[in-house]
Amino acid sequence: MSHSSLLDFEIMQQIGRGTFGVVYKCKRRKDGGIYVLKELKLSGCTGDEVQTAINECNILAAVDSDYVVRYYDSFIDNSTQTLWLVMEYAAHGTLRDIIIKSKDYISEQDAWYYITQMILGIASLHASHIIHRDIKSLNVFVADGSNGQKYSLKFGDMGVSKQLNSTIIMSQTLVGSPYYLSPEICRSEKYNIKSDIWALGVTFYEMLNKGKHPFLAQNQAALLVNIIKGKYKPLPAQYSQQLIDLVRWCLQQDPSKRPDVFSLLAIPPVQQTIKQYNLKLPPAVEQGAKEAMQRLSRIKSSEISRSRLASERSTISTQSSTKGSSYIPQRQIPIPQSQPIVQKQHELQIDSDIIMVDRNDIHEYKDDFDDEVEDNQSAARPETAAFQQKLQELLMEDAKLLQKFEDTVREISSYQVQQMTKDNLINFFVQNDNLDEKQINDFVFKLIPLNKIGIVQYFKQYAKLLKQRQQVAIEINKIMLMIKG
């Protein structure tokens, strides 16, 4: 399906609303097929930014996986300056809906079935060098099942709308729901594929614990503190140790100790689930899983060899004690230590110097900001409560700066300057302080015409706000380290 227009579809009902527009269930007039139309308002966006969003759609459309919501088409309605995305329709809502509707704990068998599909979904994205960056139960969509199963799970909302903010600084920010933020993001460190794995672990925990998240708090600042501490209540004892260990593995504080998604595919219960339900693997995912299983096999062989060496040494030690001082032991052989299974990350790594939380998600689950256990811990350490208060103040300050910053970005975009020129000008103002008018004129008006002189004030404001936000990020990081210490 290509070259669609809004006239090709009959709007049936609104099924969601986001920052950039509304999401509709619709019927295609030609064949009666049911799809989702997602609206993205383009007001204030430059041509380059719109093209970036369209390119993102094309990348997602190339992902051929049963575990990722399919992007069929995109088109622009010039009369309303709106980008429309045509996507696969999931009839049963989201995983969050399934969790809330379940009166009892999800069964072990269903848990492995859902978890395996989620792993396959993220593997499909990572194999295509796409980081999701906003994994949560609300972004796991539930469609009709196959192989006699009631549901099939698919990841969606890979952040096309975020590309509409694709100025140079916006590429340095991170967007995500606060409950799913990894420790490295809370510490203003770099985001990579292992941050996706952390969010996947949080989603698994939420599914296995009747919708409760592993890290709870009364406010956002305390939540970030608890994520960095890394302590959470155990999962219900009804689940197998393998399932509990899987969640614990994903929620390792150190990103280097977390598995990559293909290592998750290699564990026996996931492999058994794939075979049991005859789940289809995209070729790139299947290859990644095979390589991970080979690595796992080598590690197991190494562990067996190490165990044998330890047994032989024990025997030699016993013989030595009986032979007296004339016995010369064999040369000691160093035992190799097994290394964690880690996928190369450089192709999927994104820099982040500033924390940016999606403000629309902060109060999404209000009950989770009330946890007596964490309150008692804070009361036992008054200095922690003081740090949390300071952290909350810094987050509020950053939120105010962010609003001003976004307003400035929109003003810059309204001047319709080419993206490369805009990036050059932004770098110029960011890297140079205390410029006089002559310096500005000599550089700026080589790149833009005189009738766009008004943009200069916004570049100055941009540079100022950027540095203020960077300073706030540094202060947030200091507070985090104090709390952890």
Automatic annotation (TrEMBL):
<keyword id="KW-0547">Nucleotide-binding</keyword>
<keyword id="KW-0418">Kinase</keyword>
<dbReference type="InterPro" id="IPR051131">
    <property type="entry name" value="NEK_Ser/Thr_kinase_NIMA"/>
</dbReference>
<protein>
    <recommendedName>
        <fullName>non-specific serine/threonine protein kinase</fullName>
        <ecNumber>2.7.11.1</ecNumber>
    </recommendedName>
</protein>
<dbReference type="InterPro" id="IPR017441">
    <property type="entry name" value="Protein_kinase_ATP_BS"/>
</dbReference>
<feature type="region of interest" description="Disordered">
    <location>
        <begin position="304"/>
        <end position="330"/>
    </location>
</feature>
<feature type="binding site">
    <location>
        <position position="38"/>
    </location>
    <ligand>
        <name>ATP</name>
    </ligand>
</feature>
<comment type="similarity">
    <text>Belongs to the protein kinase superfamily. NEK Ser/Thr protein kinase family. NIMA subfamily.</text>
</comment>
<dbReference type="InterPro" id="IPR001245">
    <property type="entry name" value="Ser-Thr/Tyr_kinase_cat_dom"/>
</dbReference>
<dbReference type="GO" id="GO:0005524">
    <property type="term" value="F:ATP binding"/>
</dbReference>
<feature type="domain" description="Protein kinase">
    <location>
        <begin position="9"/>
        <end position="274"/>
    </location>
</feature>
<feature type="compositionally biased region" description="Polar residues">
    <location>
        <begin position="312"/>
        <end position="327"/>
    </location>
</feature>
<dbReference type="GO" id="GO:0004674">
    <property type="term" value="F:protein serine/threonine kinase activity"/>
</dbReference>
<dbReference type="InterPro" id="IPR011009">
    <property type="entry name" value="Kinase-like_dom_sf"/>
</dbReference>
<keyword id="KW-0067">ATP-binding</keyword>
<keyword id="KW-0808">Transferase</keyword>
<dbReference type="InterPro" id="IPR008271">
    <property type="entry name" value="Ser/Thr_kinase_AS"/>
</dbReference>
<keyword id="KW-0723">Serine/threonine-protein kinase</keyword>
<dbReference type="InterPro" id="IPR000719">
    <property type="entry name" value="Prot_kinase_dom"/>
</dbReference>
<dbReference type="Pfam" id="PF00069">
    <property type="entry name" value="Pkinase"/>
</dbReference>
